[in-house]
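Help! Submission page says 'invalid entity' but I think these are all valid:
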Amino acid sequence: MKISVVGTGYVGLVTGACFSDAGHEVLCIDNDPKKIDLLHKGVMPIYEPGLDEIVARNVKSGRLKFSTSIAEGTAFAEVIFIAVGTPPGVGGEANMTYVEQVGRQVAEHMTSYRLLVEKSTVPAKTSEYLKRTILKYLREDTDFDVASNPEFLREGTAIEDATHPDRIVVGVESQRAGDLLEEIYRPILQKGGGEFLRMSVTSAELTKHASNSFLAMKISYINAVARICELAGADVGQVAKGMGLDPRIGPRFLSAGVGYGGSCFPKDVDAFVRLSDALGIDFKLLKEVQAINKTQREYVMKKIKQELWVVQDKTIAIFGLAFKPETDDVREAPSLYFVPKLGEMKAKLRAWDPVAEGKFKEIHPELECVPDLYECAKGADLVLILTEWDAVKKIDLKKLKEIMACPVIVDGRNVFKPEEIRALGFTYHSVGRN
Ligand SMILES: NC(=O)c1ccc[n+]([C@@H]2O[C@H](COP(=O)([O-])OP(=O)(O)OC[C@H]3O[C@@H](n4cnc5c(N)ncnc54)[C@H](O)[C@@H]3O)[C@@H](O)[C@H]2O)c1
């Protein structure tokens, strides 16, 4: 089948590449000419493990193409996926400007039936606004459908998630729209497994809010438990293991740490709270999830301050800027809280991240970044771990201790075993463990 995907970011590019790898003909569109130029040159505009290979393979086979033109995308395929950003807007509500733009531009170029699929995470009822927008700007009297197909992939494992989905959720209003989406996903489901769920559009939109908010709730829950563990003299890692082996709970998203970040959880929980407020429901549980997440960073900051006493002029080495390993995405990353706060306190900061330095420096060009972990830690009074990259897990601790001015680690990701690292002579603070 022919498919257009609008927005070639973390979601759109992975989706387009995986659809083409499944045998479809795909045109990926972005209004950022720099991104399309890079893609034409075979350079990935984002870091996602394995993506470059899939893109190269499918470009070579002629099944994957790129363009900046929505007119071309509208003419190219009957099904158009919208995968543009929906960042937090004024007052925290999702900014729907880009989704509206795409709806309008597609409408202006449509001359026969088109199915517009919301792949971006959008507030419930977006399809109603999208339909209205299309009707306003349609130049010819043509049929169309709007569907919701929320994306559940995770950065860092996006290819595996897109090719082996546990479920494909589609919200449709017509048999035709549902059948088109089933045809698109058939090769992926046949190869990778997973369930194809047809439901109403609003249910599909809400499934995404409810899923991400639930996962964020698990993280805030374990972070709240971590604080209790620390005071009660328990180890949150052991508690989480004991909890997670219960299949009703499950082990994932039970890692205590510095709190959740990224482009999805903070924004999606916020959107669900706002939607509930608008519907007259005070979703206090989710408001507490947000409060715990916010204070979790402050909680780790307190450990730094207590350890250093005077922060001014102390050298702090930051290990990790990305919101999680295996991505260069820094949106809502904990590093965006710690770097300016520690900067205000006049600490001397030096950071290391294998792939996120460039994106972080677009926001904080003043931060000194170095390409080597040991160089980063040289002469430091404290190492702050914000991303559990493999290189951090595998660091030579004896060497680290020798090169630091003071062997102190504040570990926001519970990378090391407290007793082992203390036996090496480190002062070690982690989350939920003594
Ligand atoms: N990143 C994730 O892990 C993830 C997971 C699930 C869902 N989502 C959701 O998917 C959506 C996209 O997220 P992302 O992380 O891929 O964002 P992104 O910022 O990486 O990519 C969005 C792309 O859309 C392009 N764009 C914006 N307006 C456009 C327009 N009018 N025409 C053409 N292109 C346009 C931008 O240039 C950008 O390249 C968001 O709603 C997000 O919440 C993201």
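Support: the input was valid. A stray whitespace character was the problem, and the output above is from the cleaned input. The first strand starts at residue 2 and ends at 6.
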